[in-house]
Amino acid sequence: MKQFNFSLEDLLPHRDRMLLVDEILEIDAKAAVTRATVSDQWPLFDGQAVGPLVLIELVAQTAGVSNGWVRIQQRGLDSEKKGWLVGVKQARFFVDALFLNQQIITRAENHFAYESFRHIRGTAKIGPDIVGEVELQVIQTDSKGE
């Protein structure tokens, strides 16, 4: 595991069952790559599997890792974490379900950023297979932007 001088909780407002990301694999101002392991604690778990809709949240959290890293670089580790309003522009899923203990590698990139608006493109893979492609439009209501 790569060592960073911050935690996922420093980057994201998510806690407990809603924090889906397990590990940051890569991070910079434009993109992030994360690893997540499907758990029975995840939202939408039906006793056997999780629906692929959760991939939208994985892309959003992975983008939040990158954008949180930018916040820390610009404002410091103790700066206020604010949520983003997320709109799903497009989502394509290539599996019907995600099963317990499958590891998902998610890459999210700020395709376009202006002040507090982002257009994000994300891809989720299990092994070499793409299981989802997601495009998000996100905005932060604070006029200062992140």
Structure, described:
A six-stranded antiparallel sheet has the order 1-2-6-7-8-4, with helices on one face. The chain has a two-stranded antiparallel ribbon with strand order 3-5. It is built from two helices and eight strands. The two termini are 27 Å apart. It has one domain (8-139): Thiol Ester Dehydrase, Chain A (Roll), CATH 3.10.129.10. It has 146 residues and is of the alpha+beta class.
Through-space gap between termini = 27 Å
Mean pLDDT: 86
The succession of helices and strands, N to C, reads HEEEHEEEEE
Main sheet attributes: strand count, strand direction, barrel closure: 6 strands, antiparallel
Radius of gyration of CA atoms, rounded to a whole number: 15 Å
CATH superfamily: Hotdog Thioesterase
Q: What's the CATH architecture?
A: Roll
Strand order of the largest sheet: 1-2-6-7-8-4
The low-confidence parts are none
Please, how many helices?
2
Strand content: 35-45%
How does the helix and strand content classify structurally?
alpha+beta
Which bin fits the share of residues in helices?
A: 10-25%
Q: How many strand segments?
A: 8
CATH class: Alpha Beta
CATH level-3 fold name: Thiol Ester Dehydrase, Chain A
Please indicate the count of domains.
1
Backbone shape: globular
Compose a concise summary of this entry.
The chain is α+β, with helices and mostly antiparallel strands and 146 residues long.
Summarize the SSE layout with pairings:
Blueprint: H1 8-11, E1 23-27, E2 31-37, E3 49-50, H2 54-75, E4 85-93, E5 98-99, E6 103-114, E7 117-126, E8 129-139
Antiparallel strand pairs: 1-2, 2-6, 3-5, 4-8, 6-7, 7-8
